[in-house]
Amino acid sequence: IVYKLVPGLFQKEMERRQHFYASRPGQAATATPEQRGEDTERIIFSPEDVISFSLEYADVTDTDSISSKSSDSNEPPPNSASTRRYLQCPAVVNISHLKKFLSKKFDVDSSQFAIDILYKKVPLPDYYTLMDIAYIYNW
Predict the structure, then answer these.
(1) Which of 12, 43, 58, 81 is the most buried (most CB within 10 A)?
(2) How far is CA 107 from CA 89, 95, 112, in A?
């Protein structure tokens, strides 16, 4: 939990461990990869990380369209290539920024239409960041 709360702490700790075991090869042989500071399975995100994701248009009147958007399926739904957009954003970008981006990009009149961003049919709150979503939904 501390690694998630203090920015950069995880990376600095791993560097310290690598430096420590580099000067002590005898102890490094008996240490686990995590103890040696090797990044075995990264589950810690930092605000500097870049997150790649895709967005797809889902028609509100077509419930099959929304339910077929699951990223677990290896087979894309028909005509999904034309509505899917790939983005790379910093981990600290929040949903409200993405909504504003989409509104400006596609010239959506916010007085007539609302933009909702869903993850597997669940609307995401505006204050969630991409880092929050990665932790909550365990991409």
Answers:
(1) 58
(2) 21, 18, 12
Instruction: Write the pLDDT tens digit of every residue in 29-56.
Output: 777 766 666 665 656 777 888 999 998 8
What count of Cα atoms within 13 Å lies in the side-chain half-sphere of residue 16? 6
Looking at the chain, the domain(s) classified CATH 3.10.20.90 span 50-137
Instruction: List the one residue out of 52, 132, 59 whose CA is nearest residue 85.
Output: 52
pTM of this prediction exceeds 0.90: no
Contacts of 130 (CB under 8 A, 6+ apart): 51, 53, 89, 90, 91, 92, 93, 94
What is the per-residue burial (b if ≥16 Cβ within 10 Å, else e) of 36-73?
bbeeeeeeebbeeeebebebbebeeeeeebbebbeeee
Whether domain 50-137 has CATH 3.90.180.10: the reply is no
Query: Which segments within 21-121 are labelled E, that is strand?
Result: 50-56, 84-90, 118-119
Name the CA dihedral angle for 83, 125, 128, 62, rounded to a multiple of 10 degrees.
Answer: -20
